[in-house]
Amino acid sequence: TELRSWVDDVFSKWFINVSGVASAEVGGGLIREIQVIPDQQRLAGIGLSYKDIIDALQTSNKDEAMGRLQMPAHEITGRITGRLKDINDIKNLAIAHNAGNTVYLSDVAQIVDTHVEERIKVRADGVSGVKLSIQKQPTANTTAVVEAVKERLDWLKAQKILPDDVTLTTVSDQSIYIVQSLKNASWSAITGAFLAMAVVYLFLGNLRRTLIIGSAIPIAIMFTFVLMALGGLTLNIMTLGGLALGVGMLVDNTIVMLENIYRHQRENTDSFVASTEGANEVTSAIIASTSTNLSAVLPFLFIGGLTGLLFSELIFTISAAIFASMIIAVTIVPAYAAKVTNIKTNRVRHVIDSGVDRLQRAYASSIGALLRFRWLVILSFIIGLGFSIPVFLSGKHIVLPNLDNGNITVKITGDTGVSLAEMDQKTKLIEALFAKQAETETVYSLVGGSVYGRSQRETPSEASITVQLKPLSVRQISSGDWINRMDKLIAEQQLAGFDVRMTQRGIRGIRTNKGDEDISLRLQGANEIELKKLADDIAEKMRLIPGITNVAHSAEDEQFELAMTIDRERAASLGVNLQDIKQATQIALQGVVVSDYLDDDKSYDIRLKLAENEIKSPQDMESILLFPAKDNTGPIYLGTVANIELLKSPISILRDNQMRIVELTASLSDGNTLGEALNSLSELRANITLPKGYTLYDGGSQKALQDQQRLTEVLLLLALFLVFVVMAVQYESLLNPLIIILSVPFSAIGIALAIDTLALPLSMPVWLGMIMLVGIVVNNAILLVEYIEIERDTGKDISASIVAAARLRLRPILMTTLSTVVGMIPLALGWGEGAEMLQPLAVTVVWGLTFSMLVSLLMVPVMYHLLHSFKTRNKQKTLIAG
Predict the structure, then answer these.
(1) Alpha carbon distances (Å) from 536 to 411, 433, 659, 667
(2) Distance (Å, whole) CA 179 – CA 130
(3) Which contacts of 383-388 are long-range, i.e. CB under 8 A and separated by 24 or more positions?
């Protein structure tokens, strides 16, 4: 009991005033209490009862006020000190006088300074202990609070406040995964920026011009930080992930601006004039492309639910970065470029320029040829899109990717009536298996129930183990593979009567259903027995579905219950009422707290309880003595007025909308997706015939998946509409925006290739990537169409304008696309902790944008030629008719 008392009274108090800490809750361990163990027969022999003991402890163990003494000069208050000062005082407490003799408490009871019965056992790495849970305030920063707690802990160690025989083990530290994720996101952003700069240098062949574009990145990031601060955002996984995703896009506008100025500088010796003319030529295209980027993703900021909760900060950060890059591109970059005079051609630059010129001439020549086969080009892309559609329809659907933070939750359930001792033995065996694994860092166990802060739920047939694996960068296997390995090892132990289920914990606080498991079904009906029978049948059918494991239902969790039926008439005739029976049975089984004992200003319960060896079976209950209040009636046995049975009952009764339900839950096996499992379950539900009045419905998983799909479809259509509207306003026409927007759907071919090649599940991040692509892929088309219009304004015909624009815009299109793609590669590779959420998004954008470059370079010129030629012919017909 000393450890629990020290943690309660001393250790936990040091953390309450740490900045950002909301509570420091203590659970588990041995709690001191004073037990008064009465001798039933001795009490009955001298004519006393439990009431005499209770009355004596309650009336004689307290201080009382005795009023005020008023004197001429002052007033004095009085107090009667009646508190029992030590264990001897309790033993020597007089409870009655019998035949002239005083009966002391020790005459009829044994007084023991002991601890509360340990119904829940807490262990860390196989050693019993006490749990201290430190919770942060809702608005506090997790890593900052953890760091402050660690500093306080280091201070306590330095001050030697921690006893030498106390060992501290951290079983859960949320900051480790967060910090590592932040480091990985930062590394991805920095690496992506350098890779993007390498692409720029390869095309420009000049370090000074590359540095102009490179300088835009830190300036844009600082501007983004200002906008984030105004929006109330902090640096976290999502905001840093947004920067990592957007770092390649940060240079898109600056590339377009600088490349055009650079081209003018080669034609004009006056650097200032070339800078001005080049900037004026592409400013409208930059504003248009930025507007489309923002219009595609900004609707995300105004939606709620799980999608808004997870991705609103990511979208805000990307939007702020894109906006910042536009401001820098149209202001700072032209000013920098004007200061850079014509640079002498070196060998590297000559090789690069020669290579790009050859590529431009070859591309221009190819476009000239493709314009003669317009329908063949368009038909080729349409066929590719047609082959892509089945990939999306038959792809694996999930709500969110699994995050491998190495946190494994293990639930152990024993058969009905299993003792705490047997459950503890089996749990230790499983703990030992976990501890032997090289990937295991800590093993934390709760046997006999659950601990929530200072409250707890006692269930002897249940135990839980939380295993924290080493960081992903250290271990060789994923959490899913580790679970599969342990399932086999546990199966070899042949733990008959015990069910062991292991699941990988996802994002803390995020649930796609109403329970904790991946899949949840709810069976509703009136009759408890029928519900259990139906649930057993459905669970057996669920176990036959491939890819579904850990199938269980809430009615399976049962416990033995003592059911007592009272003979009311006989009890009344003997002077015993329900309250007397309740008090006697409670004293016999778990004891009743009747008073408290103060020791050094710390209060401990005084519990009246029969000796444990008196009640060992349901039959022993009948020998419990009742002490009737009726005169001339001696003590009677409980069996005289009550019948006691041992029955099975559910551990918990669940209700939904005030109707009784049974919840069926299951986990997904590694490699299976939620969409596949839900499709199988939908077929199962369709083939099950339930009695009238019984309903089987989804517990939340299917609705979450369907809601996500509906939301993303709406957002995708809204993004297309907004991008089209923005371009229509920008161009003050519908034809060119129509040409540009028609190129967007064909980027789905690249995404379909990624889904098929990489076995990429269709999750929320993938859909978000598609929506982002709506705003991104139009950038190249805007550049091309804008410059075709400029060439046509010089008097060239449509074909000549397209060929000229294609040759001149090839370099910036390649530079912007490749810099964005290469900048996202570190995130798309998904290395390290925290990458699982953003990797699918990055992969979607990389593959979709890469293929969209082909669409912009090949299909957009052909579409422009087709539609504008048709428009010109119509005008000519109208003039002839006129």
Answers:
(1) 20, 31, 19, 17
(2) 27
(3) 384/746, 384/749, 385/745, 385/746, 385/748, 385/749, 387/749, 387/752, 388/748, 388/749, 388/751, 388/752, 388/753
Helical (H) or strand (E) element with 244: helix 237-250
Write out the two tokens for 161.
């406040």
In the 8-state DSSP scheme, what is residue 166? -
Note whether 326 and 286 are within 8 A (CB): yes
CA-to-CA distance for 263 and 272, rounded, in angstroms? Answer: 13
CA distance 582 to 653: 24
Q: Which H or E run contains 540?
A: helix 528-543
- Could you tell me the CA-to-CA distances from 179 to 174, 176, 510 in Å, in that order? 9, 5, 19
| Residue-level pLDDT at 169 | 85
Helical (H) or strand (E) element with 444? strand 440-452
Q: Enumerate residues 6+ apart whose C-beta is below 8 A from 461.
A: 413, 414, 415, 416, 417, 418, 423, 557, 559, 651
- pLDDT over 50 at 509, yes or no: no
Checking if the pLDDT of 189 tops 90, the result is no
- Give the whole-angstrom CA distance, residue 576 versus residue 50: 14
At residue 643, φ and ψ (nearest 5 deg) are -115, 130
How many whole angstroms separate alpha carbon 480 and alpha carbon 503? 8
Smallest CA-to-CA distance from 493 within 566, 403, 422, 427 is with 427
The answer to whether 598 touches 542, Cβ cutoff 8 Å, is: no
**Are the beta carbons of 681 and 539 closer than 8 angstroms?**
no
pLDDT digits (tens, 9 = 90+) for 81-134: 888 888 999 999 999 887 778 999 999 999 999 988 888 888 988 888 888 888
Are 396 and 761 within 8 A, CB to CB?
yes
Those residues with Cβ within 8 angstroms of residue 757's Cβ, 6 or more apart along the chain or in another chain:
none
Domains present along the chain, CATH in parentheses: 2-173 (3.30.2090.10), 176-400+705-881 (1.20.1640.10)
410, 501 in Cβ contact below 8 A? Answer: yes
pLDDT at residue 57 in the model: 92
DSSP 494-548: --TTEEEEEEE--STT--SSSSSSSEEEEEE-S-HHHHHHHHHHHHHHHHTSTTE
Q: Nearest to residue 395, comparing CAs of 708, 757, 760, 671?
A: 760
Helix residue ranges per DSSP H, 732-797: 735-742, 748-758, 764-776, 778-793
pLDDT tens-digit series, residues 257-298: 887 888 788 776 677 888 888 888 888 888 888 888 888 877
Is the pTM for the entire model greater than 0.90? no
Residue 74, SS3?
coil
Distance, CA of 506 to CA of 140 (rounded, Å): 21
Q: Is 459 helix (H, G, I), strand (E, B) or coil?
A: strand
Q: Provide, rounded to the nearest whole percent, the portion of the chain with pLDDT above 90.
A: 16
Can you tell me the distance from the alpha carbon of 446 to that of 121, in angstroms, rounded to the nearest whole number? Answer: 6
Mean pLDDT of the chain: 84
pLDDT digits (tens, 9 = 90+) for 746-777: 999 999 999 989 888 888 888 888 888 888 88
**pLDDT single digits (tens) 217-257:** 888 888 888 888 888 887 777 888 788 777 777 788 888 88
Pairing of strands 32-38, 602-608: parallel
Nearest residue to 278 via CA among 338, 342, 326, 332: 338
Distance CA 341, CA 264 (A): 12
- In whole angstroms, what is the distance from residue 840 CA to residue 733 CA? 36
